[in-house]
Fold these 2 entries.
Entry 1:
Amino acid sequence: MNVTINDSCIGCGACESICDAVFHVEDKAEVTTSGIAGNEECVKEAATACPVSAIEIA
């Protein structure tokens, strides 16, 4: 699973609150790639919950 954050991110923190093993928010969300394995379901949930659809999964 490849997870990226596009430029529409507003840094709201929703992804981090859903899946803090993968997402960290300062000004903009960042992905901790080492945390993806085993957390695929919460990554998908965070992508669905993102208010600006900034999380891209490939």
Entry 2:
Amino acid sequence: MRTTWLIARKELAAFFDSLIAYILLTVFLGLSGFFTWWYGDDVFLRGQADLTAFFNIAYWTLFFFIPALTMRTLAEERKSGTLDLLLTKAVTDWQVVSGKFLACLTLIAVALACSLPWYASVAWLGEMDHGAVWCGYLALLLMSGAYVAIGVYASSLTNNQIVAFLTALVIGLFFHLLFQTAAGTFTGVVGTVLEQLGMGVHFDSMSRGVVDSRDLLYFFSLMVLALTLAEMNLSKRLVRNA
């Protein structure tokens, strides 16, 4: 675990050194704040003390931001050759993959934490269901974890960051929109399965304040599957180079 955290710290430092972290935080807070407070179905238009508007816009904002954040995690190091150097040290493939994952997820958690003043402001404006709000934040974090894992997997497939970004976006699009859309055209078991594969049904359930073990299993299964596939890609590279 110590090695994993050291890799995560190195990756986090790289984010802040290259201004990626600052750009992410600024744009994410700017967009989500604009739609939460001033435009569309905002807090004042809803007339309710909740963060539904924030969760709805963050659901889409993070979907696009996370592939941009993760596209460099393995692709850049593979292109520059530093990945080979890293893996010659006493570091396992899983430690590299999980370290990159932890760094990206930590940055997302920081972005979400920066929105907590909005939570305090809305709570001051009226009576709030605090349990539902915290469940909504948990849903955003778990959703982000799933997309970060997918992004790391996509980055393990190529040494081109743009290709990694597009691959992560396309894979994520199936879970974010296409499965749920396809579920509406089917009935019975097929429709149910497609609906459960979609991210929306699990996110909506948790953002309403319901923490179901099936939702948790869904998010963690996606994370473990994507990270395992990323680790397998690194292992294949070592076999080819042997």
